[in-house]
Amino acid sequence: MKKAAVIIPIVCVAVVVIVIAALFAFGVFNPSGQNTGSGAADQIVGTWHGTKSVMFGVATADVTAKFNSDMTGKIDGTIDAPSFGFEKVPVSIDFTYEHKGGNAYVMKIGGQDTAVTCDGTTTKIKINPSQIKSDYPSIDIEMDLTRV
Questions:
Q1: What would the pLDDT profile of 29-73 be if each residue is shown by its tens digit?
Q2: Of 33, 57, 77, 85, which cross-links 63 as Cys (Cβ 3.0–4.6 Å)?
Q3: How far apart are CA 140 and CA 99, in angstroms?
């Protein structure tokens, strides 16, 4: 009876260690929040496009965002805000991003963090022209991008 009382806890500890190792190996458990190259973090990798008008057409953004597997990316497109004196201003922004778990990401543009979500079908981002250049208008344009 004493032998079983010693063996059972040892077996239980061994099973727990194996399960935790498997969770790390398959990217299911990732306490750092960094992209492990598998699972949900990969769903954002690719090219996305969207167009959005805000404030009754005061500003319009037409962008294509490319999220690379090395956690870098680029947004290209135009922002149109004629009432602010900006017509079809070309946009080209390099960024980095990190996977925060689940569908949550943080995009870093010009030292500022921007929350991003991606469910594999739609990527939601917020573009603010002032992040591109300080004298551009500060208008948050929330966009839904679809995979190209």
A1: 444 444 444 455 689 999 999 999 887 778 888 999 999 999 999
A2: 77
A3: 22
Confirm if 63 and 141 have CB atoms less than 8 A apart.
no
- Of 72, 83, 80, the C-alpha closest to 129 is 80
Render the burial of 101-124: b for 16+ CB within 10 Å, e for the rest.
eebebebebeeeebebebeeeebb
Query: In the numeric block, which tokens belong to residue 133?
Result: 């250049």
pLDDT digits over 73-122, tens only? 999 999 888 887 878 888 898 999 999 999 999 999 878 899 999 999 99
* Tally of CB atoms within 10 A around 65: 26
Is the pTM value of this prediction over 0.90?
A: no
Locate 72 and state its tokens.
């870098």
Question: Hey, what are 125's tokens?
Answer: 């981002």
- Which DSSP letter does residue 5 get? H
3-state secondary structure at position 87 = strand
Name the token pair of 52.
Answer: 């959005």
